[in-house]
């Protein structure tokens, strides 16, 4: 939801809500089981008239009840147990460690292309090649287990920090219109991911432009000074990369894929058709699509995320590839060598190809009204590499109406019960009911409803700087009134969610 403020004549935003666990009273099955065990352990000695058994069962009931409601670091006990067990079970099977390069499996056919070798949740991924909306090669990332197809665009945006409030609201409204257009019944585009990466600037393109345009009669001293300045500026500056990923679900598009001939080729064609239809909406959000990533371009994004040291070399290669008459390799990376040579997942960080990454997920968004620039502090000042990723799932009208009415009913019943029992209604319950009513009104007016979450990944090349980079991110998040949670025992999966544009970061609703 949004509302204009008269003081600054700009629009502020609020109204996002936590998604509750859908089992019982917002509790998971594990917590309900512990609570039920505590109740049974507490009443059984009394019901069986065996008070002696209470000496053993009553302390057990207290422990179970405490574990059901105890939170450590913002996570419940069952969440910690699940994460700890999952990590150590994978560690016992050496799944926390990944080796590729010389250790990568060779194809059965010696003449066939070498397959991709990626770690963790990316292992079932295959990069297909299709024809993009503008006729250029398009990389389609096909995940065999999820049965999803993802296309990625490198985008350029004008920004909203230095524009007037009217233009800022217009750009944000354009982004909202893009998402609202996807909130249709049966839309095969099930997820949208917006990824921004803050990386050190290589300066390769600028140096190439300088070399191509320097005059032959220019003084040698001026050329030397300019070259030194370009080198120094590249070492102290950072660049931003923005990507937009659209994910199509095979199940929703099954009919269209079958009509197009079936198979992955037909699915890629259907995805391209929808991307072409979204071109006007993307332009309406003041997002300029520089290019839809081809297979080598997408592989370069993967490679530079896992190996930050390769960024400068690949930027030089890309600059040379765009220069007429230059001899060298084509831009990008072969998809077969896009993954890391080695990676190791530990409880507190993720080591990959000479770099260390820590991923946070956004646990709580600002609870008060904020402006559209609220996420700017998460991008940092370029001192450390950061990647911010927002994953959005558009909901169809029927599912959105069901969720909003369920929330409104629960809030109305809670407030009504307090009124009937002569209790004081807490202010947070009043505000929650007001938000649910406003969402219902906006949904009736034609607005869309989405599920969303966010991740931030910090990457350093010196392990000694890991905690300093994490502390800086936590301070920036606190300034934005955003609450982060470190992804203990799951940093390898968090890295994929936060630093790579594949749309894997929005989990299913827990039961």
Summarize the structure.
The chain is an alpha+beta fold and 511 residues long. The chain has helices at 29-47, 51-69, 77-92, 165-182, 204-213, 220-235, 254-259, 263-277, 279-284, 295-306, 310-321, 397-420, 427-444, 466-479, 491-499, and strands at 2-5, 10-13, 71-72, 75-76, 97-99, 125-131, 137-143, 148-157, 189-200, 238-249, 287-292, 342-345, 350-352, 355-364, 385-395, 449-460, 483-486.
What would you call the structural class?
A: alpha+beta
Using the CA coordinates, give the radius of gyration.
26 Å
Mean pLDDT: 85
- The counted number of beta strands is 17
- Which residues sit in consecutive blocks of at least 5 with pLDDT less than 50? none
In percent, how much strand structure appears in the residues? 15-25%
Relative helix content: 40-55%
Distance between the termini: 27 Å
Number of distinct helices: 15
Largest sheet: 13 strands, antiparallel
**What's the shape?**
globular
Furnish the topology, listing elements before pairings.
Elements: E1 2-5, E2 10-13, H1 29-47, H2 51-69, E3 71-72, E4 75-76, H3 77-92, E5 97-99, E6 125-131, E7 137-143, E8 148-157, H4 165-182, E9 189-200, H5 204-213, H6 220-235, E10 238-249, H7 254-259, H8 263-277, H9 279-284, E11 287-292, H10 295-306, H11 310-321, E12 342-345, E13 350-352, E14 355-364, E15 385-395, H12 397-420, H13 427-444, E16 449-460, H14 466-479, E17 483-486, H15 491-499
Antiparallel strand pairs: 1-2, 3-4, 5-12, 6-7, 7-8, 8-10, 8-11, 9-10, 9-15, 12-13, 13-14, 14-16, 14-17, 15-16
Helix pairs in contact: 1-2, 12-13
């Amino acid at each position: 939801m949004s509302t204009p403020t008269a003081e600054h004549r700009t629009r502020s935003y609020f109204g996002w809500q936590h998604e509750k666990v859908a089992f019982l009273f917002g509790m998971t099955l594990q917590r309900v089981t512990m609570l039920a065990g505590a109740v049974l352990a507490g009443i059984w000695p009394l019901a069986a008239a065996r008070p002696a058994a209470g000496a053993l069962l009553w302390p057990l009931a207290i422990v179970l009840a405490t574990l059901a409601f105890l939170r450590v670091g913002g996570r419940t006990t069952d969440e910690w147990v699940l994460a700890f067990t999952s990590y150590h079970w994978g560690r016992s099977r050496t799944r926390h460690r990944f080796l590729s390069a010389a250790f990568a499996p060779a194809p059965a056919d010696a003449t066939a292309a070498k397959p991709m070798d990626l770690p963790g949740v990316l292992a079932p991924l295959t990069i297909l090649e299709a024809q993009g909306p503008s006729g250029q090669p398009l990389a389609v990332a096909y995940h065999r287990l999820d049965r999803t197809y993802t296309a990625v665009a490198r985008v350029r945006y004008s920004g909203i920090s230095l524009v007037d409030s009217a233009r800022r609201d217009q750009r944000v409204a354009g982004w909202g219109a893009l998402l609202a257009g996807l909130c249709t019944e049966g839309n095969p585009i099930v997820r949208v991911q917006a990824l921004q990466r803050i990386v050190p600037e290589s300066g390769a393109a600028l140096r190439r432009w300088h070399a191509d345009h320097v005059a032959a009669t220019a003084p040698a001293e001026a050329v030397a000074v300019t070259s030194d300045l370009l080198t120094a500026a590249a070492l102290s500056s950072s660049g931003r990369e923005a990507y937009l990923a659209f994910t199509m679900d095979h199940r929703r598009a099954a009919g269209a894929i079958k009509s197009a001939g079936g198979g992955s080729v037909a699915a890629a064609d259907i995805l391209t058709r929808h991307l072409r239809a979204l071109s006007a909406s993307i332009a309406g959000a003041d997002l300029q699509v520089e290019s839809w990533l081809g297979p080598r371009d997408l592989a370069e994004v993967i490679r530079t995320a896992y190996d930050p040291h390769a960024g400068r070399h690949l930027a030089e290669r890309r600059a040379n590839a765009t220069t007429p008459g230059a001899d060298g390799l084509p831009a990008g990376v072969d998809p077969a060598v896009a993954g890391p040579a080695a990676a190791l997942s530990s409880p507190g960080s993720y080591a990959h190809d000479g770099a260390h990454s820590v991923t946070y997920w956004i646990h709580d968004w600002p609870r008060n009204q904020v402006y559209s620039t609220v996420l700017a502090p998460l991008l940092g000042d370029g001192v450390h590499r950061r990647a911010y990723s927002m994953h959005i799932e558009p909901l169809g009208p029927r599912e959105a109406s069901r969720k909003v009415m369920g929330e409104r009913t629960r809030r109305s019943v809670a407030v009504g019960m307090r009124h009937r029992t002569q209790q004081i209604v807490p202010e947070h319950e009043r505000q929650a009911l007001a938000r649910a009513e406003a969402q219902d009104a906006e949904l009736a007016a034609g607005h869309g409803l989405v599920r969303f979450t966010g991740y931030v990944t910090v990457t350093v090349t010196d392990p000694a700087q890991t905690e300093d980079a994490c502390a800086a991110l936590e301070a920036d998040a606190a300034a934005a009134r955003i609450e982060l949670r470190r992804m203990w025992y799951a940093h390898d999966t968090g890295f994929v969610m936060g630093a790579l544009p594949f749309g894997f970061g929005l989990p299913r609703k827990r039961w």
